[in-house]
Write a structure and sequence with these properties.
Length: about 290
């Protein structure tokens, strides 16, 4: 299908934002809005994955918009981080609907902290009917320590190469032990007490994510990498929380694991596989 790829600018509270629209000649009523992840990235995405995703989905009839929010990429304004992009998201949605009048609803696409942003800011918007989330970012010192103990130190201590290096005095044993003990202490910390009575935006962002996941009635596709500590930290949090389990293990939530993929799906094979799975999921979106 022929696709019109158009750069656009739009405004968010006086600041200019930049995006790219991918509009098929016969656009579907459901579009995909891609949120760029934090760090030194912009609307093309890590390894230009958002470009490839947008072009692939648009050829199959799904309109796509990808954009930079304030302080990211080529946009002006102050960078406040993924926890504070509600207005940016709304401005992008409004522009998407204006530019593609055939649209009735939107599916958010985001990886890492863009997945976190989707869960924080998306559920309050009725026009968002689904989310495609890659390795949601939920960093917490306790859960991260558990992940490092289980998936790094435990494996390292079972490797012959580690003990050979240690016995050959090619590494500082005291430093290694101190580091492991520090992580072990953190992993045993328990958060006690009730949540503080405060404004929603002042709450820890994983709490805001959980609140969003619990209230969201749309569909979710989780794309999880086997080689990502971010992915494993998310799993650690879910395993330790009945509330998270109820929010994620429900009808309408589908999870797909990529055992050999890293956090960024940086190989061509992993990138193409995740896009293909997302396209198939979108194609059967309305089926129960």
């Amino acid at each position: 299908m022929n696709v019109n790829e158009v750069p656009i600018t739009f405004e968010c509270q006086g600041d200019a934002l930049i995006g790219v629209l991918h509009v098929p000649e016969s656009p579907a009523r459901r579009g995909v809005l891609a949120i760029v992840a934090g760090g030194p990235q912009y609307r093309a995405g890590c390894c230009r994955q958002l470009v490839q995703m947008a072009r692939t989905l648009a050829k199959e009839g799904t309109p796509v918009m990808r954009f930079d929010y304030r302080g990211m990429g080529d946009c002006g304004g102050q960078h406040k981080g993924f926890k504070h992009i509600s207005q940016d998201l709304q401005a992008a949605m409004d522009t998407f609907f204006q530019q593609v009048p055939e649209l009735n609803e939107i599916v958010l696409w985001g990886g890492c902290d863009a997945a976190s942003a989707s869960l924080i800011h998306g559920p309050n918007r009725p026009k968002i009917s689904g989310m495609i989330l890659g390795n949601p970012f939920v960093h917490d010192e306790t859960t991260y320590a558990k992940v490092v103990i289980r998936h790094y130190y435990w494996q390292r201590f079972r490797q012959k190469a580690f003990w050979k290096k240690l016995l050959a005095f090619k590494m500082n044993p005291f430093k290694a032990v101190a580091s492991a003990l520090s992580m072990l202490r953190k992993s045993r910390q328990v958060v006690r007490g009730k949540l503080p009575q405060s404004e929603v935006e002042d709450l820890p962002f994983p709490v805001r994510m959980l609140s969003g996941a619990r209230k969201f009635n749309g569909k979710i596709l989780l794309l999880m990498s086997g080689l990502s500590l971010v992915s494993k930290e998310f799993d650690e949090l879910v395993m330790s929380s009945p509330e998270w389990q109820m929010a994620i293990n429900r009808g309408g939530v589908k999870r797909v694991d990529f055992p050999d993929a890293d956090q960024a799906f940086s190989t061509v094979a992993a990138r193409d596989q995740q896009i293909a799975i997302a396209a198939k999921w979108l194609a059967v979106f309305d089926q129960k």
